[in-house]
Amino acid sequence: MRPIRRKLQLVFQDPFASLNPRMTVGRIIAAPLIIHEPRMGQAERAERVAEMLQMVGLLPGHAGRFPHEFSGGQRQRIGIARALLLRPDFLVADEPVSALDVSIQAQIVNLLLDLRARFSLAMLFISHDLAVVGHLCDKVAVMYLGRMVESAPTIELFSNPRHPYTEALFSAAPDPDPDARRSRIILSGDIPSPINPPSGCVFRTRCRYALPACAGEIPPLRHVAPDHQSACIRDDLTLQPAM
Amino acid sequence: MTQPRQMDPGALLQVDDLSVRFRSDAGVVSALNGVSFAVRSGETVALVGESGSGKSVTSLAIMRLTPSPPGCQVGGHVWLRGTDGVPLDLLALPSEAMRKVRGDRIAMIFQEPMTSLNPVLTIGEQIAEAIAVHRGTARASAWDAAGDLLELVGIPEPRARLATYPHHLSGGMRQRVMIAIALSCDPALLIADEPTTALDVTVQAQILDLLRRLQKRTGMAVIFITHNLGVVAEIADRVMVMYAGRIVEQAAMRTLFQAPRMPYTVKLMHSVPRLQIGGERVVLEAIPGSVPDPTNLPPGCAFAPRCSHAAEGRCDAVSPALEEVGAGHFVRCVRWREIADGVGR
């Protein structure tokens, strides 16, 4: 697995917990090189770190500082630099902007877009913020209680959702436009306990379209259009799009 | 005892020149610098800002929950209209009297429903406690009232739930319990400090809907603290935008979204992606840099170092005053006129 890991890297949600406070930023970012290219000389390593720091919008001189000297957004940049140092093919970004301030989120989203294009990265972007997902992603998979309930290209999913949970998610997202009047679907109840999930469709306990048949089998994820999959037995529904 | 200054007759709460300073190893932290605003009965005022902007400190100072001196210095005045209509100077109130205000006239709910409830007491005991303390009600009837409150906040099987512990409940349910405690004494003002930030999107919509319905029913005023502009558009009548311990813009909600005047507000709105279908993928207008260090605020406008409109010699010289732009619309920017006329950039 270890040789494959250099192709797969991870950016974490919490930039305060994911950087070792006792290490300098240079040492943190160089860690992948120390593990995967132990024969590389110190000078070359430092050079690669400096180059990476600049690529994420920090200064080469920052390598000698410690994580506590940086703000949340800067720390997230350090985490991204560490993840991209080995030029991975695939990057998992697990809620990389959720812990950041609003004005900083956009900086990091823009940075990820820029680096994705520069390194032709494939990215799995994990998020609960649908607006950011719509802004950044080509394809979206919606999960609920441990299952994928819908998956489609972003534009298709936003304009033509086929699963009631996706519709409810769009409807629940608060929109920063006071005139965007929409009928709001407010789901009743909470996400059920995964220890004792409901029979059949796991969403049926909160679904306003549920039928008795929904309690039977777990609906499989099936194609409802080319490239669009949904796990709902109700093919007769017309659901509200994102906007 | 200070004589109450003229309190706006329509105001329920009036904050005059509130300032809070903390002493830290790194120096004096100016968390709040001369914040003034008023809240009328029944209205929802949103306090918007990033972390460190002073929104939570404002609410803690109103409630007098900031640490005691010398670690923390609070200045200014907070007037609250008492039940008899006479203004109370909250910052000068004896602590015994202040304790009667807290939880009774002003209630508060917090961001973390997981950590704001006592894990070793049943939720029934926690709600009944508030009622018993403030109303002197006997335990049994306080318990009954607690059941009614759980019903009011939409918890299924409310009477059975009274005997359960917080860990039995989900985040959304715990926030409902917090709201039940806050409403137990029928407060005139509810301070909600990021009450939905820790919740899922679908649960957030439930809680916002619940708060709106309860407010309509009880007529209480709400100060809603959030960093989410979407939530503001959803719930607020008026908005105050805070930056580095100051109110930098204040307006009716619609005015603020339609004609923001402070460059910071404008930038903040442009930096948030909208939920929309397709369209060309615009680059988000990120605000460069980060929030200034509160131990070392810039001399002029605190936003100037990050502002694309900042003019040398003006914006970095003196701290701008809050100017009236239109009816009830205030902004703290020396260049707002030029920027509005389009010569700013």
Give a brief description:
Helix content of chain A is 34%, strand content 14%. By secondary structure, chain A is an alpha/beta fold. Chain A has two domains: 2-136, Rossmann fold (3-Layer(aba) Sandwich); 139-230, no CATH class.
Observed structural traits:
heterodimer; A: 243 residues; alpha/beta; Rossmann fold; 2 domains; 4-stranded antiparallel beta sheet; 3-stranded parallel beta sheet; B: 345 residues; 11 helices; 30% helix
Could you explain how this protein is built, in words?
The complex is a heterodimer of chains A (about 240) and B (about 350). By secondary structure, chain A is of the alpha/beta class. Chain A has 2 domains: about 140 residues, P-loop containing nucleotide triphosphate hydrolases (Rossmann fold, 3-Layer(aba) Sandwich); about 90 residues, no CATH class. Chain A has a 4-stranded antiparallel beta sheet with strand order 4-5-7-6. In chain A, strands 1-2-3 form a 3-stranded parallel beta sheet. In chain A, α2 packs parallel to α4, α3 crosses α4 and α4 packs parallel to α5. The longest helix of chain A has 18 residues. Chain B has about 350 residues and is of the alpha/beta class. In chain B, about 30% of the residues lie in helices and about 25% in strands. Chain B is globular. The model of chain B has no long low-confidence stretch (mean pLDDT about 90). The chains are: A alpha/beta (about 240), B alpha/beta (about 350).
